[in-house]
Amino acid sequence: MNIYYVYILASWSRRIYTGVTNHLERRIMEHRSTTTGHAAHYNKRYLVYFEMFGEVEIAIAREKQIKGWSRAKRVALIEGANP
Predict the structure, then answer these.
(1) What is the CA radius of gyration of the chain?
(2) Inter-residue contact 31 to 45 (CB < 8 Å)
(3) Residue 62 in contact with residue 51, Cβ under 8 Å?
(4) Is the dihedral of CA 45, 46, 48, 53 positive or negative?
(5) By the 8 A CB rule, do 31 and 42 touch?
(6) What is the pLDDT of residues 61-74, one digit of tens each?
(7) Can you tell me the distance from the alpha carbon of 20 to that of 36, in angstroms, rounded to the nearest whole number?
(8) Half-sphere exposure of residue 72, counting CA atoms within 13 Å on the CB side?
């Protein structure tokens, strides 16, 4: 069984990034080690939230749902699980 993750990274300046992957630890390390891209530009290094799914289609749909939310709603999601 495959596991897919929807995750949210944050920086100390409170910028957030939402993504989906099938290997959470590897993907976080890629974000931390890269010098290009959105996560690197804003120094988004801290995993503040994640969800697990058994099907990639559901994970992608959830990622899109979260990305469509207002910032306040995304922050409430993070703070609800990770005060």
Answers:
(1) 12
(2) yes
(3) yes
(4) positive
(5) no
(6) 999 999 999 999 99
(7) 18
(8) 0
**Could you give the dihedral angle defined by the CA atoms of residues 70, 19, 75 and 11, in that order, rounded to the nearest 10 degrees?**
-120
**Residue 19 bridge partners (DSSP):** 7
What the block records as the tokens of 47 is 């995993």
Token pair for 45: 């290094």
User: And the tokens for 83?
Assistant: 């005060």
Question: Residue 53, SS3?
Answer: strand
83 falls in which pLDDT band (50, 70, 90)? Answer: confident
Give the whole-angstrom CA distance, residue 2 versus residue 26: 15
Instruction: Name the phi and psi angles at 7, rounded to 5.
Output: -135, 160
Indicate the residue type of 60.
I
